[in-house]
Write a structure and sequence with these properties.
Helix content: 55-70%
Number of helices: 6
Order of helices and strands: HHHHHH
Strand content: under 5%
Largest sheet: none
Length: about 110
């Protein structure tokens, strides 16, 4: 990913997402954790925001719902339900979609 790609990606983030990113970029006091120093950066994500992030990423990559549904092996109607409510999607389908989009996630209980 080039610096121009990163600038474009950041410019398309909502203010809430930018704030989360900036919080992760800053190293926390004494613990040294943060996006720049941690080998596996993580931050909490509101599931309500995930659908918007997915839709925006599809648009950014120039992919249609039909193309992505075919790539991850689900029907278009199932794919639309995944985008509309990611929290109710099967974990395997959601993981396949995120992987195809190049988004890494960690699920914790």
């Amino acid at each position: 990913m080039t610096s121009d790609n990163i600038k474009d990606w950041v410019s398309n983030l909502s203010q809430v997402e930018k704030n989360l990113l900036m919080a992760q970029l800053k190293t926390t006091s004494s613990s040294g954790e943060g996006l720049l120093s941690s080998p596996s950066p993580r931050h909490p994500l509101e599931l309500a925001a995930l659908g918007k992030i997915l839709a925006r990423e599809l648009k950014r990559q120039g992919l249609t719902y039909e193309e992505m549904a075919l790539q991850i092996g689900v029907s278009v109607s199932t794919f639309k339900r995944i985008i509309a409510n990611p929290a109710m999607a099967r974990a395997g389908n959601l993981h396949a979609l995120l992987a195809e989009l190049g988004i890494q996630v960690w699920l914790e209980r």
